[in-house]
Amino acid sequence: MFEALNERLTGVFDRITGRGALSEKDVSEAMREVRVALLEADVALPVVKDFIAFATERATGEDVIRSVKPADQVVKIVYDGLIEMLGGEEPTPINLNATPPAVILMAGLQGSGKTTTSAKLALRLTKFDRKKVMMASLDTRRPAAMEQLAQLGKQIEVAVLPIVAGESAVQIARRALTSAKLQGFDVLILDTAGRITLDEALMAEVAEVAAVANPVETLLVADSLTGQDAVRTAKAFHERLPLTGLVLTRADGDGRGGAMLSMRAVTGLPIKYMGSGEKVDALDVFDARRVAGRILGQGDIVALVEKASQELDQSKAEAMARKLAKGQFDLNDLAAQFQQMKKMGGLQGIMGMLPGVAKMKNQMAESGVDDKSIARQEAIISSMTKAERKKPDLLNASRKKRVAAGAGVEVQDINRLLKQHRQMADMVKSMSKGGPRKMQQMAAMLGGLGGPTGVPGMGSGADMKRLQAMGGGKLPDTSADEMKAIQDRLAGLGGGQLPGGLPGLPGLPIKK
């Protein structure tokens, strides 16, 4: 979402980096460019003015002018300003302190993602907070919305209030409250109706439901791709409803990010959650520090660690580590790496969380490195027999033609995959002879145990220092040594060199 803003800000900081000292003129010019970048990202003008005033005052202080590396401090000041704009250092937790059932009212316009977000929130409260949750749809004007919530409830195994034809939204809310109390539910999520545009009938209905349900949380679900329209919608709802927080959907889209940056400052409401995908588990607690880090190209190592801890199968990782210790790595293992990468959000998702790698995104795109490439390599492996996957040397010319026809690719694609697998297999054999230390490094690179974090390649001391830095609210600095470590870990995953020196990834067609 913040790709364009990241590029503009990175360009500003690159121009001032390396200077021994910054004059007030340097700071003024940098802040002017930051202002233009924020306005182009569709950030509200009053928010931009306050941000620039804050950053300029801090950046022209004596401490910055006399610093050995003043440019680094300017980056830190912008980072702090972004955090302040987005709502502060600490995430605002959802309030469930009420006599059960604690009612959460979901409001918003039609198409903003209320129903899907209701299911995502229910799953999160069930999975992480160990709450017994019931959902109820109050959208009487769109029966399909009621059915959608019922289907989502089955999918995530969360109870949904049965549909009774002819009831009004208020009647459904009363029945849901009674049912949730009698059945001992901890949380009741009410999915209200929406409209294409704001109107008085919508506001009156939602306000009446809120008066009956007395929710502990009234969350406005807004589509972050709508830009400043989302901000106007939030203000209009907040004038009629006692909103307690915001949920921004489609944060993984290609919008400019202005709504997210403006929403907190304009409404005064905390952003509590951020939807980052279509899947029912794609709902993250909003953390201003992480978002600010992504905007400035610092990645999000903490999110990567959390995602890995949730998605990676520890038993499979241990089995892989034992196999690697014997110097074995066949095409089944390569396919397992692809599956692991998909669980982590795919290649693009992982790259977006690694510091510094965002700068190489265009180079990767030009080289044909994307999630479609991984899917193509998976198709090749799936077209092979079990014997061929276990022993790739069996693949002679006729077998390769058969596999190519089955996967819908050319024979040269198969040759490229086999060459890169051979490089990885040779590396595994050589490292298996290097003792426990070498094996630990190899396990880290290939998704094994990999150290205290349990994340592929995330077990080093440098990585843990980065985690501590981010946890303390400080801007993590990607040093040359750390970038080399990241590239070395990527290099361990397979052949080829991308433009700019980024090592290739397994099985991906690298253009020479």
Description:
The chain is of the alpha/beta class. The protein contains 24 helices and eight strands. The chain has helices at 3-16, 24-40, 45-59, 62-65, 70-86, 114-127, 143-156, 169-182, 200-213, 228-240, 258-267, 288-295, 301-311, 314-325, 331-343, 346-353, 361-366, 371-382, 386-390, 397-407, 411-432, 435-445, 461-471, 480-491; strands spanning 102-107, 133-137, 159-160, 187-191, 217-223, 245-249, 271-275, 283-285. Strands 3-2-4-1-5-6-7-8 form an eight-stranded mixed β-sheet, sandwiched between helices. α10 (228-240) links the parallel β5 and β6. The radius of gyration is 26 Å and the shape is flat.
So what's the oligomer here?
Answer: single chain
Residue share in helices?
55-70%
Mean pLDDT: 74
Rg from alpha-carbon coordinates: 26 Å
- Sum up the overall morphology in one term: flat
Query: Which percent band covers the strand fraction?
Result: 5-15%
Number of helices: 24
**Major sheet attributes:** 8 strands, mixed
Indicate the structural class.
alpha/beta
Q: Detail the poorly predicted runs.
A: 445-479, 486-512
Distance between the termini: 30 Å
Strand order of the largest sheet: 3-2-4-1-5-6-7-8
- Total DSSP E strands: 8
